[in-house]
Design a protein that fits this description.
mainly alpha, 2 domains, two-stranded antiparallel ribbon, 15 helices, 5 strands, globular, binds zinc ion
């Protein structure tokens, strides 16, 4: 009897540890998290811990895990953009990149970062929210054959800003916030594919340019929301190195002229969106002069790309139109944020349109439809 009690007691901590991850992870994943052996196990553990530490993500994953096709946490995250970018590198650089791990994670900064620790080694991360942020930011910014109503663009812009501020519930798979016509979503996805490759390329460029210095590590808050904070030991990168990585994300890729222009276009659109995010955040919570910037401003980074490469006339034309929109949106944001602060500051869900309309579709009822 004593033996049975002993065995139950010795399994209690293990049961409690496992319970922490049940729902979002499958059993094999929980084994890997509790006894991490490879850098990919450490990455999985970091992803799971962030979700477990922030109830608002945990709620979403408990919902997701009840869906038929949810098979586990690792397959929830896509690593396509990293692999696609690596495939553009020289053989030698491809081999180097096999030395480190990479993956998307929930974090505050739309920019990526890289962590190091003795056991896990180096891991490159991009913000998981990017894939949703980019849908709405591109819907607000891009030109389409079929006109997008202005109020839909503006709502898309609000959603993108809210995602960047951790105010939008990350349950887009359950509640997509509206319906976007097929031809428009195809154009948006083509752009996102190149944007994500470019952003992943920026992080790989830090590594390939030798910016990751183990003597320059710093503890950084990688996610803070109303319900908790998460920290990570990350590489400290200088502003000069940031500009260098912006250029070498493109220079390291061995691509033809057409694809080069596609990547330049994506980089310029990405920085144009980021410029508006910085602008909105400055209005909402002006930075003190003591605040540390992790990256140079998006406007400076945009100019650095413009000055370093020859941009084709067709890309230039499109970007000119986008830049006009950026200017108009900035004027709009200045007014909108002061008049409708709750649209930006409160946690929840914002939609492209009213229920039962072309851009929204039938209203989904929480706990009935998802
Ligand atoms: Zn960087």
């Amino acid at each position: 009897m004593d033996e049975i009690i002993d065995s139950v007691q010795s399994n209690v901590p293990n049961f409690l540890e496992r319970a922490w991850y049940i729902g979002m992870c499958n059993a094999k994943e929980i084994d890997r998290i509790l006894k991490p052996k490879t850098v990919w196990d450490f990455l999985l553990k970091k992803r799971a811990d962030i979700i477990a530490d922030h109830p608002r993500y945990m709620r979403v994953f408990l919902h997701l895990s009840k869906m038929k096709d949810y098979s586990g946490l690792e397959s929830y995250f896509s690593d396509r953009h990293y692999k696609e970018y690596i495939s553009l590198l020289s053989k030698q650089n491809q081999l180097k990149c096999q030395q480190i791990a990479y993956g998307d994670i929930f974090s505050n900064d739309l920019n990526g970062y890289a962590s190091y620790d003795e056991k896990a080694g180096t891991i490159i991360y991009l913000n998981e929210s990017l894939k949703y942020y980019n849908i709405f930011m591109n819907l607000a910014l891009l030109e389409f054959k079929n006109e997008v109503p202005n109020y839909v663009r503006v709502n898309a812009l609000r959603i993108a800003i809210r995602i960047s501020m951790e105010k939008e519930a990350m349950d887009f798979l359950l509640d997509p916030r509206g319906t976007i016509p097929q031809d428009i979503i195809i154009r948006i996805n083509d752009t996102i594919k190149m944007e994500l490759q470019y952003i992943a390329g920026h992080e790989f460029a830090h590594y390939l340019c030798g910016h990751f210095d183990r003597n320059k590590l710093t503890i950084k808050t990688i996610l803070s929301s109303d319900d908790g904070e998460s920290y990570e030991k990350v590489y400290n990168i200088s502003q000069r190195q940031e500009f260098e990585a912006d250029l070498y994300s493109i220079k390291n890729a061995i691509i033809n002229k057409k694809d080069l222009q596609k990547m330049l276009r994506a980089a310029l659109i990405w920085f144009s969106g980021l410029e508006m995010i910085e602008y909105a955040q400055d209005i909402i919570s002006p930075k003190s002069s003591f605040a540390v910037n992790t990256h140079p401003s998006a406007a400076e980074r945009y100019n650095s790309i413009m000055n370093a490469f020859d941009i084709s006339s067709s890309v230039k034309n499109e970007i000119d139109t986008i830049r006009k929109r950026v200017k108009e949106y900035k004027d709009f944001l200045m007014e909108d944020i002061s008049l409708n602060y709750d649209e930006y500051g409160l946690y929840g869900s914002v939609y492209l349109d009213e229920p039962n309309t072309e851009w929204r579709g039938r209203e989904l009822i929480d706990r009935v439809d998802y």
